[in-house]
Amino acid sequence: MITAIAYFRKIGNWIWASLGNHPLAHLTGLYIFCIIVFLLAVPLPRVDGHLVGSDGSYYYAYLPTLLLDHDLDFANQYAKLFLNYGRHTKEPSESRPQLNKYAIGPAILWTPFFLIGHLLAIGLNVAGYRIPLDGIGYIYQIPTLLGSLSYGFAGLLLIYRSCCRFYKKSASVTATILMWLATNVIYYMIAEPSMSHMCSLFAIALFLELWLAYRPTPTLLQWFILGLAGGLIGLVRQAEMTWIALPAAGLLPVLCKGWKTNMRLHLPGLAVFGMTAFLVFLPQIVLWQIQYGNIAGGGNIEGHRVFHWLEPKMIQVLFSMHHGLYIWHPLLLPATAGLILLYRKDRFLPFLLGFFFLLQVYLIGSWFGWMGGHSFGSRMMIGAFPALALGLAALVEWTEEHGALAFAGILGSGLIAWNAVFFAQYRLGYISKYLPITFEQLIPGKLVVLKDLMNRFWAMIR
């Protein structure tokens, strides 16, 4: 028994050293693994015959509509992307299904990859293959979704870089891998990359990393760059625009030392930041004006889609069986608590990140659809993960300092396994994608899934 413990401890120490010595190699290896899994899943039969789906079909529809049709009439794209289009009544435009209320940001980020697919389609047509040049087929969707997957990976690299500003490489890469594999990041990277969440993860991780690099007193050029990144957040997901206020809030310690003097000093930078972010976000405002006749007619603020500001479901967002953040992905609870340990590195930062995390919880909890509809976990909180990763890295390094690394390794591996079974449970239809899960489905149900999957595998190889 003692020999076995020593052997596993030796393996753990080797893994820890390897993570610290070759962090980018480990992250790149996982990225390649995700690409392979995504490509292997492409031939699987799909009800609608498309790789894009759910809200992702709306994000994707901008590409063929704007780049190939050169208009804003989405009717022909929706007819190809959705089954039973004649009965399609996706809110908020039941009588005007040609409109698109979804953010244009993901399509802007995906454009280079979509154009690669278009060039491939043209080349195959020249070679004699009859490939429709309508922007809808797999030859367009595969490179576009690989682009989305790649933005998710870029976001994770930025998260790793941010963690390295405070902690060792080994702790930073471990936190990054756990945020990748033990949360819904892995799901929206390889199962539903047409959703906006990988683009959102990238945009917020980029914004946070730039702010950490530039603070406490950015130059005018740095304020301009922050404005570009902040505007991108709004273009991708308007519900996560609260994070754009982070640099302004970060000036509070400086302003407290001399309000009038420092305010005059930083006001030009804040103005540059605000104007730049607004100009980057302007295409979305223009789209809303063209489609809805006002500058705020799209998004999720039309008709019955309202916010209940005085009755937010904050506890439900975090702890509900209906896609609650900590219930579905328990790793995020210690990650949130780990922000307290960040106090040892920066006395103001943990309070600031904790405040903006709670602000995001409040915003989502105030919305009538706080549960996220068809959602693997609390997908609308993915934008907070770059901040929570700093808390997780702090916790990982703390466990090493206190000789609890082996326990942390076992726990982390268990949480990755939990998430993997949850992934299968959700994707294969063992639980509802829309309704709350039960306690039996949450814990005993995972054993049922494992047993069923093992039986299926055994039947295949017999």
What does this structure look like?
This protein has 462 residues and is mainly α. The protein has one domain. It has 21 helices and no strands. α1 crosses α7 and α7 crosses α18. The longest helix has 34 residues. 40% of the residues are buried. About 2% of the residues have low confidence.
The value of Rg in angstroms is 23 Å
The description of the largest β-sheet is: none
- The total of helices stands at 21
Structural shape: globular
Give a short overview.
This protein is mainly α and 462 residues long.
SSE blueprint:
Elements: H1 2-21, H2 23-41, H3 55-69, H4 75-81, H5 105-126, H6 138-164, H7 169-181, H8 185-190, H9 197-214, H10 220-236, H11 246-250, H12 252-256, H13 259-292, H14 314-319, H15 325-328, H16 332-337, H17 349-366, H18 385-401, H19 405-427, H20 439-442, H21 444-461
Question: What key attributes describe this structure?
Answer:
single chain; 462 residues; mainly alpha; 0% strand; globular
